[in-house]
Design goal:
Blueprint lengths: L2 H11 L19 E7 L4 E8 L7 E8 L7 H15 L4 E10 L13 H4 L4 E5 L11 H8 L7 H15 L3 H18 L5 H7 L8 H35 L4 H8 L3 H10 L6 H10 L1
Helix pairs in contact: 1-6, 4-5, 4-6, 5-6, 8-10
Amino acid sequence: MRRDSLFYQLFQRSPVLLFELLENPPEQAEQYRFDSVAVKEPKFEIDGVFLPPESDRAGVVYFCEVQFQKDERLYERLFGESLLYFYRNRERFADWQAVVIYPSRSLEQSQTYPYRSLLESPQVHRVYLDELGAIEQLPLNLGLLVLTTLKEQQAPVAARSLIARVAQEAPSEPERQGIIDLVVTIMAYRFSQMSRVEVEAMLGLTLQETRVYQEARAEGEEIGEQRGRQEAGRSLVLRQLMRRLGLVPDEVRSRIATLSIEQLENLAEALLDFSTLDDLLDWLAKS
């Protein structure tokens, strides 16, 4: 998994996260949605675009670039693609902004002179994650971004610190589980030689906190609910059969016990036409 896919997950889960990095976020920051768009003629793929909510008035579109490798043509590409997309969609947007996220200043493009006016303007924001401050002092979402930049010796301690804060700072269970899953995903990327279970053990997660457990529990609850419905349907059908046909032999009961929910529903309709036990046996033989 590449880092840009990690950031894609972060931004997709919480588009407002981008605006926590900016001094002057838009008024409708919480209503933005994150997307990937294509610009045709020529065709460009812009991975990070924050689209404003649709309303009567045009909003501001934000272009985002996460750059963890040196790219000496980054600004040529970013401004070329972004401005072309803005041009093609001029009626939809009142303005544009660009945000470039670096782990540190060392990955900046060397030759920036041709873009000095843009880079120094309030429309372009360069964010250096290692300058945001200590991870322990940052909001959880920003802490997740910084976690992607830490060295392997520092990352486990920082990840455990984030997880410890989740219970107090995340307002809901789905959000708490979402943050824990992202911490594990980031660490699994950083320690690719380890399995997810090993990463979870390294982070000190209990069984109940892991995604595997959550998924297994949800699946178990679904299976339990299905079995409950199946048992209730079976009992109802047997009561109806006894009222209509009298005593139902044990071997026939055993056969009915193997029917699926759909088959039980079909039998509940068909038994209205039964007059003898043979009618039931014929139906079972055909089902």
